[in-house]
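re: the backbone from monday

yeah here it is again, tokenized this time
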């Protein structure tokens, strides 16, 4: 069924690409797969949903952006409004009114986010700017995995994986340690 189709899609698009990016040792494969599995919930999330139902959860995920329950409440169950707010004026995105936050929200196995990153990946994958006009292409595993692999390579994650340092790999991929515990669980599964 659906699970087998997902597994086939992952094996077809991910497995053969790993050696092309020197993800070719036990530790490199385990760390790469742990990170993309966490970011994509085991390859089941192609696009960041941002449909939050709890103000408290918004305050936990974005504590600097949501200081009060009252303020967070206005972003509940409104993915577009939330994305445009939390991603405005950063990562190459314009202000709230541009819809860049929503248009360039996280997509693909590494959850590529932001106009700047979409432009960079578009240039590297297609040699043009098609991801800026069709950002949903990154939700397609064949393109999303390329973006993930490019990000991994450009961030020199193989070197960190070689030392088996999940903390350093997570900071490299996430910019912080969000989901570190869950990433460790994925890493243990892949090992």
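seq for it, each position gets an aa:
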């Amino acid at each position: 069924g659906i699970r087998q189709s997902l597994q086939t899609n992952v094996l077809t698009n991910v497995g053969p690409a790993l050696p092309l990016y020197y993800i070719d040792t036990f530790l490199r494969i385990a760390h790469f797969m742990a990170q993309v599995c966490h970011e994509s919930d085991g390859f089941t999330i192609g696009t960041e949903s941002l449909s939050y139902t709890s103000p408290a959860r918004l305050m936990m995920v974005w504590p600097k952006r949501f200081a009060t329950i009252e303020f967070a409440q206005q972003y509940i169950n409104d993915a577009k409004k939330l994305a445009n707010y939390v991603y405005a004026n950063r990562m190459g995105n314009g202000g709230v009114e541009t819809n860049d936050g929503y248009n360039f929200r996280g997509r693909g196995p590494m959850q590529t986010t932001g106009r700047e990153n979409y432009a960079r990946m578009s240039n590297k994958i297609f040699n043009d700017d098609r991801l800026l006009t069709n950002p949903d292409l990154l939700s397609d595993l064949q393109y999303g995995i390329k973006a993930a692999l490019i990000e991994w390579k450009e961030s020199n994650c193989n070197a960190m994986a070689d030392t088996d340092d999940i903390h350093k790999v997570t900071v490299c991929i996430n910019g912080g340690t969000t989901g570190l515990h869950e990433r460790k669980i994925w890493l243990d599964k892949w090992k």
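The mean pLDDT is 94. The chain is about 55% helix and 0% strand.
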